[in-house]
Design goal:
This is ABC transporter permease. By secondary structure, the protein is mainly α. The chain is built from 2 helices and no strands. The radius of gyration is 24 Å and the shape is elongated.
Length: about 60
């Protein structure tokens, strides 16, 4: 529970309108991040040649 001296600041935070002007750009950046690193993470599974990480041996 918020103490009384911080309650007014929290109410002022909620009273301001939300700004969604950069939502589209940020969503596009996040989708690109997921696509690039998801493809990199999934690529060794579908790789049919020699091991991708050469030089590493199993213990």
């Amino acid at each position: 529970m918020l103490s009384s001296r911080y309650r007014r600041g929290f109410a002022e935070l909620l009273s301001q309108p939300l700004n969604f002007s950069s939502f589209g750009v940020n969503a596009l950046v996040q989708a690109a991040y997921i696509a690039v690193f998801g493809a990199l993470a999934y690529s060794p599974v579908r790789h049919e040649g020699p091991p991708v990480l050469t030089g590493f041996t199993a213990l």
